Amino acid sequence: MKSDYIKTLLKSFALIAALTSPLSVFAHAILVKSQPEQNATLTASPKQIDVWFNDKVGGEYKAVAVIDSKGNRVDNKDVQQEILDGSHLYCTLPELPAGTYTVRYRVVSIDTHIVTGKFQFTIQP
């Protein structure tokens, strides 16, 4: 009986702490920067794709994929999260031919929501 009271009390404290925490804790991750930038036109193939978010993202379930205009995945499937900056993900690329490419990303926000998005860049002939 005493343990039920303690469990209820702990749950109440957890709920109060969650409700009084700053709202930024509950915000979804937002892409704030990429390299190449969204809708960039490049004269050469980039060596890697970098994406930065407004806050650290979870290390699990992270994904960055580069898709060509035919729907084929063309990155090296080696997404990494920077050790010293948890808001930065990157993946490497082989030499890409001229064309338009879509970068798709998926991360888990601090609030545990999955955030997905995409942007394009073009390599000129």
Please outline the helices and strands.
Layout: H1 2-20, E1 31-35, E2 40-42, E3 48-53, E4 63-67, E5 80-81, E6 88-92, E7 99-108, E8 114-123
Parallel strand pairs: 2-8
Antiparallel strand pairs: 1-3, 3-6, 4-7, 5-6, 7-8
Task: Write a concise synopsis of the structure shown.
The chain is an alpha+beta fold and 125 residues long. It is 15% helix and 37% strand. It has a four-stranded antiparallel sheet with strand order 1-3-6-5, with no helix packed on it.
What does this protein look like?
With 125 residues, this protein is of the alpha+beta class. It contains one helix and eight strands, in the order αββββββββ. It has a single domain, classed as Sandwich (Immunoglobulin-like). The strands form two sheets. A four-stranded antiparallel sheet has the order 1-3-6-5, with no helix packed on it. A four-stranded mixed sheet has the order 2-8-7-4, with no helix packed on it. Strand 5 and strand 6 (88-92) form a beta hairpin. The termini are far apart. Mean pLDDT is 87; it is low at 19-25.
Rounded radius of gyration (Å): 20 Å
Biggest β-sheet: count, sense, barrel?
4 strands, antiparallel
Number of strands: 8
Class from helix and strand fractions = alpha+beta
Would you identify the regions where 5 or more consecutive residues have pLDDT less than 50? 19-25
Spatial ordering of strands, largest sheet: 1-3-6-5
Order of helices and strands: HEEEEEEEE
Strand content bin:
35-45%
Main CATH class: Mainly Beta
Silhouette = elongated
pLDDT averaged residue by residue: 87
